[in-house]
Every structure is written in C-alpha cells, then in structure tokens.
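Discrete fold record:
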Amino acid sequence: MPVFRRRKGSRARLVPELDDAPLGQVRRRVETCWARGSLDTAVMALMGDVIDEAGEDWDRRAHRLRVLAGSAGRALPGIWRQHAPRDPNALLLHAWSDLLQAGQPGSTADLHDTRETCLLAAELRPADPTPWALHLALLRVERRPSNELSAVWREVKARDPWNREAHLQALGYLSPDECGSSALVLDLLDGVRAAMPLDAPAAALELTALVRTHHRAIAPGGLDALGASEIWRRPDAARTLDQAAHYWPKPGFLHHAQALADLNLLAYALIKSGRITDATAALRVTGGVATHWPWNADGEPLERFTHYYSRAVAED
C-alpha cells in the first residue's frame, strides 16, 4: 500500500487519491471513460479490483470508494449495480454516489433506499464496517434522531474501533452546526482520547474539531472574528498540536490511507496558531499533495496550500 514520503521539490497538486497511485490510475480511467460517454465492463472490473485490493484495510477501502464515487458521475454507479446487484463494492459505490448527491445544495434526495442499500452490503460482507460508516453519514445528512445514530455507531465500533470515516461523521453530527452542541463534541472527544492509538486512522479527530471551532469563530467576520486565534492558546489545543507536530511528520508514523490529509490539516492548524517552523516540517512531508479542506476556508485551496508549501520547500 502507498505510504507518503517526502519528494524534494515536488510540484504542489490537488489530487483526490492523495498518494494512492493505483487508485489514481483507476480514477483517471473512470473519468476518461465517462468523458467519452462510453461505459464498459472493463472499467467496472478495474473499480472492483482496486477496491478489493484494499482487503481488510477498511480505511483504505473507504477512501477508494469515496474517491471513485466522486469521479464516476451519477450514471456509472447505477449501471455497475445493475450489472452486479449483489456485489458489495457496486452497492457501496452506488450508495456513496447517492450520499454525495444528497450533499449538493438544494438536493431533495430520498435516502431511505440508500440506507437499505447499505444494509444489504452489510449483510453480504458482515465484517466490513464501511456500510455502517456510510449509513451513519446518511443519517447525519437526514438529521435523524440520535438513537438511530447510536445503534449504527455501535455496529461500526464492533468491527473497526478507530474507523476514520465513522468518527468524522459522528463529529459532524454532534457539532453545534448540525444536530448537537459543543458539549456533545467534548463528550465524544473525552470518550476516545485516552484509548485511541496515536497512529490510528481517526487520530485527527480532535484536531479536526479544533479547526472546525476556529472556522466557526471566524465565520461572522469583523470584530467577532478577532478572537479566533485564542482557540490555539487553550491548553487542550496546545497539547493536541504539540503531540501531532512531534509524531505525525516522522517517516512511516502515519500509515493510513488519508495520512496526507491529516498532515495538511496539521500544517494548516500550525499556521493558524503561529507555529510556522512546525508547519514547515508538516508541509514538507506532504510531498506537495494538497487537500481541498481546510485550505478552502481561506480562498482557492491549491493557491493557499502552494503559498505556504513553496516557502517550506525553498527553505529546505
């Protein structure tokens, strides 16, 4: 499996697959196929193969499904499902495509059938936490009652205790922007902080919560946003940044599929907290691979990333 490594002088780029080269090859093939208007069984086979290659690396399996769902348009997942109605890969790609569509502004998608698709995928591959993590995301979009979310959360945790996708979806659901409150977010973080391994796929949960808090603070603009930097002076924030800055940039320490996304998040948070030296170290090991979030909060994401990354490389 791909492992991020620093490549001196690499050009800054925004690629959804991050450092997953096999996924990138299939993504480009899918996009080319879709642009030509030709949907063939060979492309479906390629998608199935790259998803299966993840094996029981559930984090990478979810990453590959998410990227392919974002590249396959609306028609291809449905066509693949018609060809293979009991293939868990086809079912989950179709469900993830529905989820992405439901997240578009003005969408009125009915996700009941999508939840049923997730349940069928879970039945066909009982060990896989991905259908349950995706089911949790659907409940979040629909703002379903918390008791429904709790039941699905237990299914995920029973299969993959530190599932990245599920933890981030739970964080979003519990946030004051959606169905919860700051107190509920703290409850979630308190519940996982002591037990979560430092290199778990969900290791960026607390840092994600801090950056989202920062974004909520600056959203009003004007005088209300002036105190946003105070967030990074809180003891919990300083402790989280210290730990991540110390461990994450070390070669091979983070080894999950979206490690580069976590390093982007770390670099952004360190910049916002004024810790430029530490941010430079995190930026260097991205190899120039940028992510849309959180850089998009400050403008065009690749431009903002490149602004800081080019300086980090120049100082090397």
